[in-house]
Design goal:
- It is a single chain.
- The protein has a single domain (3-151), classed as Arp2/3 complex 21 kDa subunit ARPC3 (Orthogonal Bundle).
- 74% of the residues lie in helices and 0% in strands.
- It has helices at residues 3-24, 35-44, 50-67, 73-87, 91-109, 117-145.
- It has 152 residues and is mostly helical.
- The chain is globular.
- The protein contains 6 helices and no strands.
- α1 (3-24) packs antiparallel against α2 (35-44).
Length: 152
């Protein structure tokens, strides 16, 4: 099977599982576990270049629909994160601060969010670090098990 096909199917499965995790895991002050956002840095560093863009758009659309956010609110931020992770010298730092900054992004574009921007950001810091610390290594293990790096 083609390597890009394996990566595409793996990204599709990750998208469904990440969306389910975001919906089912508990929330604090309206801030949930950012499973989809934590997957972005891992997907962003992999070829082909179109896959991270498609994943960011899809994950953002799923996030918007699950949260009831306006169209392209999350998708535009997820695309920005993919670009910053892919072309920065410190992708782990970008990944670590992406969720707290996302809370500020949401407060700019959406009204009526539960909690203040300060409270949401304070809750988002540990949630984001935990999500990136758990989801990213897990996704890397699944990629290895799925032989996504194999050329065949």
């Amino acid at each position: 099977m083609n390597n890009s096909t394996v990566r595409f199917v793996l990204a599709l499965v990750a998208l469904v599982i990440g969306a389910a995790a975001e919906e089912l895991l508990p929330k604090a002050l309206g801030v949930g576990f950012p499973a989809l956002l934590a997957m972005l840095p891992v997907v962003a560093m992999r070829p082909p270049a179109a896959l991270p863009v498609l994943f960011a758009l899809s994950a953002g659309a799923v996030e918007d629909s699950l949260s009831g956010l306006p169209f392209m609110t999350s998708a535009s931020y997820f695309l920005l994160v993919v670009v910053l992770v892919r072309w920065s010298r410190l992708p782990s730092v970008v990944a670590a601060v992406s969720f707290p900054v996302y809370q500020g992004w949401l407060c700019l574009w959406a009204t009526g969010l539960q909690g203040s921007v300060f409270g949401r950001t304070l809750v988002a810091i540990p949630f984001g670090l935990l999500a990136y610390g758990v989801v990213a290594p897990l996704l890397r293990v699944v990629e290895r098990k799925a032989a996504a790096d194999e050329e065949g």
